[in-house]
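One-letter codes give the sequence; backbone shape is given numerically. An example follows:

. . .
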Amino acid sequence: MKTLINIAMILLVGVGLGLAIRVLRKPVATGSGPGPNDVVYTNDGPSALDPSEIESATLSKPPEDEEWLSRFELTERSGKTVKSEDLAGQPYVVSFFFSTCPSICVKQNQIIKELQDEFEGQGVRFIAISVDPETDTPEKLREYAARFGADENQWLFMTGDLTYIRRIGGEIFQQPVNKQFHTERFVLVDPQGAIEGFYNWPEKRQLAAMKDKIREMMKAQESA
């Protein structure tokens, strides 16, 4: 029995010495860079083992095909493509909405209905762009526009690809839009296609100011 205990003690001491020697042989991290066995990833993809290879003088640039949008084209409820160039020559008011919105969009489009009635047959158009284009097909938009008695020539309802509409909102009209998300603003665009201003439609004074500006633009067009 005594012999077995001695053998066990010898084995335990041997294992302990082995672990101690293994720890002593392992390199100590200095914090100044990766160790010889650490994997380092670079912008170019392959791993680098030499710390001098980590930094790169090459700057990241967006792809050349992702330029900032300055014009757009969308599908109107009639099924026809409408381009921003088609709207030039008279002022227009842009808004974002979606047809299944139960509250804000209904109020917003009721305001546009009142604007349409006030400026009936005059040189201003209203452009309503859907932020739920998967639901708002041209057929759906025709049904929705009919609820407000939208004139097909003066009040246009537009749809298209959601990613493209996000870019139109952000890059052209400076409005954050996403699927079923939009601001409560009207964007007034002048006859040259430049943004004149942003108007919060729930605020009566801003809405009145927008009407005055529209009349001013149309008067300038008539006297030109």
About this structure: The longest helix spans residues 2-25. Residues 185 and 200 are 4 Å apart (CA to CA).
